[in-house]
Specification:
Elements (H helix, E strand, L loop, with lengths): L5 H6 E6 L3 E6 L6 E6 L11 H20 L5 E5 L10 E6 L22 H11 L4
Antiparallel strand pairs: 1-2, 2-3, 3-5, 4-5
Length: 132
């Protein structure tokens, strides 16, 4: 696994490894904003070899299903941008009409919020099947 970009480390909690890469959670606890960093040096998702691309999408789908089923989010946003942080990373964000920036995108619109507490982070890790 390549070393995580410093901006990702500054903005996120490290939750643990999924099959395709490292899972992070934005420090802003206004909503569940996961960032999956695939285990690759490539910059763009669609350049991945087919098998690796499939595993990344499988992990992102798992996160989306968890957000909807375990946390009741009716909508999940999914994106891979990489304009500011060049390391490939994918955003999987639970959204609902009462979130602080609805209906705008979270990028640049999410106001500062509380940070995730350690016990809640441990619960998320357990529910996702990650090591605590």
């Amino acid at each position: 696994m390549p070393e995580l970009h410093p901006q990702l480390l500054a903005d996120c909690h490290q939750l643990g490894a999924m099959a395709s890469g490292e899972l992070l959670l934005s420090r802003n606890a206004n909503l569940h904003w996961f960032i999956l960093v695939p285990d690759t040096d490539m910059a763009d998702l669609l350049d991945l070899p087919s098998a690796q691309l499939q595993q990344v999408l499988t992990d992102c789908r798992y996160l989306s299903q968890w957000l909807k089923q375990a946390r009741g989010y009716p909508k999940v946003n999914f994106a891979g941008l990489g304009n500011v942080v060049p390391q490939m990373h994918l955003h999987v964000v639970g959204r609902r009409e009462d979130d602080p920036c609805w209906p705008q995108p979270v990028w640049g619109n999410l106001p500062p919020g509380p940070v995730w507490q350690p016990d809640v982070l441990d619960l998320v890790k357990r529910e996702l099947g990650l090591d605590c």
